[in-house]
Design a protein that fits this description.
homodimer; about 450 residues; alpha+beta; seven-stranded antiparallel beta sheet; five-stranded antiparallel beta sheet; globular
């Protein structure tokens, strides 16, 4: 096949794969039956090679699907033909100035590697989406990934001060840089952040870092009902307490994951769990943790407040495993990531259960309560096509519910393939048309990750 | 004039002015000879009226120049014909949920009013550009205004979670909302932030707030030279200290403003002054202030560390007055706002003086050292056209210097009229063309604040 030979001429034949294997055209949506296909997969080793590949493909009207760690929850890296551009070889740290709190890295560097490098120099890269070992910073940027610490520290984009990207028809562009303030141009840095490869391929980024907090002290509280748990979360905010994390698990999520809870036995059923954290210098973190305990325990049945580093680490390992524990319940799940204004958090949790029940599906939800960001989940037998179909219908209802309540169909996973059209629930036709116009401005042929982040 | 009558039909005749007075078509660039002209000025009272005005003008190919408080430093609100749309009547607080740390306000609300409202509820809206009483939140958003506290808290855009705007040809659009996370669409919120009215008119915003820090403790240190002062600033960062402010004044700025310094007598000449601040809960702020003192005093000749609220307030009033004190030196100034990577901060301060000297102009600089953001200033007699011209030439050289050193022509003031073409020093032609394509996508007729934020 001449395409493969041509690409081999650019990046070396050993870095091109014809008919890539199934795992290279799938992501974490595999469990809900999403499978892609591609004509070839190419692994460029440099920005120049990415540009040459894009130029070659764009000229020939071939779809271009960038790929990071393949851990996405929305099918953003799942191709429907065309060529997958895998950034996995581009893992260089181009420059690291720990004393100036900044780093410049290539897109293929894993988020965990970046976080470890920062830590080794007393610094902190706060965004902490799941799958930090597998996901790449490029993919985190492409989806504007969040995570538990987004409450205090913001999402991935809040740490990006500059981007290098390859845009159609094969040009390298750089916006921003090792600068924290820059208003000379439109903010095309943050237009690319979260654009899921539909405007261009992020090849490198300048990132901000901050001094690492000295300690992080979790406070976990169990509540007799979602109403009491959500009221306690609002109590925390109304008291002016600033936790670094304010996550929750509903009763079903707690039941799924509770068996391995590392801090003791959860009280019978535990219909609602809050996982909070205070961080900072030791005394300051202790002060905030004490305030957190006080605010939460007024309504809680049990409060856990571990301080030993081993216990704290065990708690976070457990928290990271919630998604897998939920999947293990029935083998599959359709798990979304709506976000809503905090005044409707309790209703959104209830709506998840109500919509699932109406479709004959068990549900659970957990997520980043302080950000109003729910992982609303419909549990399915992944081999039962009827259940999967009902779950997809339930998800569509959930999206409509979120949009009707001032929320969003996606707080942190992105739109990908699966939430196509969701934006039209949130934005007016004129606003949707602006998104389309921006897409055309960057990608007149519509070849950059086609079919993804479609607004309507 | 039929245009005036037509506009009066939309907003009421009493809210339209034919041939608006000079002060209504000027901003803070008046002192460097920038003067505008407009056919009319209109003051809509609602978003619907803004949309009707824009629809009327856009259809008739009339330029539309939005105006906030008129305090800009780049001529962004200075019209060259067309109609000024003054947002000054749109000052409503649409919704304030202090217990949820958020507020929705119209564009014409003054930044000082917003900050006071937050304070009265124990909350904090951190962006603090100068002229808080006169400038409006809409203008702050349009320029993505910064200020001393941007070091710790970020710039205006970091506090905007949603925008309502009127775009061509007269449509109301809303992006985001009372949400802290939303990746359903491209980030058109932050594309509009900093776009200086060239993509649309911001009519309202959803803003985040945070609990107000209990105390803010300034630490002011004088240094024997710029080299020692900049080294001390880098010492602070390398020690992992997180101040809320890390500003500086060079010797000439200190000389201009030093006479009214409220904390005592500055040591002879004071070639370099650092104005830092630690904030937070009382004990935490004290801890950080002590670290700041320790890091700064190793190289300082004198350190001031006021704690009494009256002294602290006096210091900030003094700091706010630096720009005026500098202007008073010779009656006029050409003051820019380049930002540079921190490793070239000292060179940027020196380059300002060197470029000024070469053009036969006294100079000074001060600004937000921790953000690498300098107010590089050429002092002029505003009635001397030759000096003004030389100062403009010096500014052009300064921009080129900043761009050549990885910096930006504008850290916080925006491009407006005065920095037209500056972006082309920073961005490649392909990147500049993307900005142009985005502009065309929003404003195909080029009528939204024409001539402003021009990239080349």
């Amino acid at each position: 096949m001449s395409l493969v030979a041509d690409l081999g001429g650019i990046v070396g034949a050993e870095h091109v794969q014809a008919d890539p294997p199934a795992r290279a055209v799938a992501d974490a949506t595999e469990g809900r039956g999403v499978q892609g296909r591609a004509d070839a997969l190419v692994r460029p080793g440099s920005t120049e090679e990415v540009a040459a590949v894009v130029a070659h493909l764009y000229e020939r009207d071939v779809a271009i699907v960038p790929r990071g760690g393949g851990t996405g929850f929305a099918g953003g890296a799942v191709p429907d033909g065309g060529v997958v551009v895998d950034l996995g070889r581009m893992t260089r740290v181009r420059r690291f100035d720990p004393e100036l709190w900044r780093i410049e890295v290539e897109a293929g560097l894993s988020t965990a590697h970046l976080r470890r490098m920062a830590r080794e120099h007393g610094l902190f890269f706060p965004p902490d989406p799941g799958a930090a070992e597998q996901s790449n910073i490029g993919g985190n940027i492409a989806t504007n990934a969040g995570g538990p610490h987004a409450l205090k520290y913001g999402v991935t984009g809040d740490w990006v001060t500059g981007l290098e990207a390859v845009v159609a028809p094969g040009e390298v562009v750089r916006f921003g840089g090792a600068l924290t303030k820059d208003v000379a141009g439109y903010d095309l840095v943050h237009l690319l952040v979260g654009s899921e490869g539909t405007l261009g391929i992020v090849t490198a980024a300048w990132l901000r870092l901050v001094p690492a907090p000295e300690v992080a002290l979790p406070v976990v509280a169990a509540f007799p009902s979602p109403a009491e748990g959500v009221a306690a979360i609002l109590d925390v905010l109304a008291s002016g307490i600033q936790p670094s994390v304010l996550d929750y698990l509903d009763g079903a999520a707690t039941a799924a994951a509770g068996g391995s809870f590392p801090l003791g036995t959860l009280p019978g059923g535990a219909p609602f769990l809050v996982v909070a954290e205070a961080d900072g210098a030791r005394e300051e973190a202790r002060r905030v943790a004490a305030e957190l305990r006080e605010a939460l325990q007024a309504r809680a049945t049990t409060v856990f407040s571990p301080e030993a580093p081993g216990e704290v680490a065990a708690l976070w390992r457990w928290r990271d495993g919630v998604s897998l524990a939920v999947t293990a319940q029935r083998g599959g799940k359709v798990s979304e990531d709506i976000a809503v204004p905090l005044d409707v958090l309790e209703q959104a949790i209830a709506a998840t259960a109500e919509i699932g029940a109406r479709h004959g599906l068990p549900t659970c939800s957990w997520g980043h309560a302080g950000d109003g960001n729910l992982h609303s989940t419909f549990l399915v037998d992944r081999d039962d096509a009827g259940e999967l179909h009902r779950a997809e219908e339930a998800a569509v209802e959930l999206f409509a519910w979120a949009a009707a309540h001032g929320g969003t169909v996606s707080g942190e996973h992105g739109v990908g393939l699966l939430k196509r059209g969701g934006l039209a629930l949130q934005w007016s036709p004129a606003a949707v048309e602006l998104q389309r116009a921006v897409k055309r401005a960057f990608d007149p042929k519509g070849l950059m990750n086609p079919g993804k982040k479609e607004p309507a």
